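Input record (one chain):
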Amino acid sequence: MRYGYVGLGHLGAPLAGSLLREGFALTVHDRNRKAAEPLLAKGANWADSPKAVAERSDAVITCLPSPKVSEQVLTGGDGILAGLRPGGTWIEMSTLGRDEILRLAAKAAEKGIATLESPVTGGVHRAAAGEITVLAGGDKALFETHRPALEAMGGEIFHMGPLGSAAVIKVITNMLAFIHLVAAGEALMLAKRGGLDLAQAFHAIKASSGTSFVHETESQLVLNGSYNINFTMDLAVKDLGFALGFGRDFGVPLDLASLTMQTFIRAREAYGGSAWSTQVVKLLEDALKTDLRAPGFPAEL
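The corresponding structure, as predicted from the sequence alone:
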């Protein structure tokens, strides 16, 4: 099976690297060729466009920053559908809304192309180690066909159901992560203003019933001052928007998600859309003129 990969950003590059590490034949493309150079040095083949990637592949994987970019890469004149032969597969690892993945899959089906959604969750650091969680949606037989590639890129692999199912659970997991991040920042600020040693407070929370994956990972990036989670404010606001849309569609009041969205909008206004999402905690630091630095934490996860 020959795979193509389009979108070699903070997440796409390590995922593509895992395919190479496990011996898959891989052709890659990104708007910035420099992003591909480490993969080319490890044996990947370069193509000048998504269409050219598709012409050399049985399945093309995309990992892109927005639904608009995903649609352009898929359906544009130089896009994947212009080059992928009937019977091929488009595997979308970006975070899309359910309606969007269904709409784009219908466009692919018109060209004889099957679609598998497989967004990932767990953080860029886990992607680099091939341990990220993969959430797949689509035909079960198609999922089994591409399971070896998904297992090369991820640790735990979940088939969530028909196409669109993975979009829903991915947005749910991101919504929880953003809520946990704001809560973790408030907890750390209580500890700091209460006169506690922040390093000791971090470890005590980690060992308590109040811990979370976000506290155990992203709180460290706050405490060391790097905030570098490789995930931006723009992406956080986009994903929270998806969550609130599902809330409307499914008739579920999302009070915490709504408050968290407002907090992230203020943070994006303060620090910019390309700022790391963990800088949402900086809003509280700046408002109280109290930093949350603590010694002994690594600069990166």
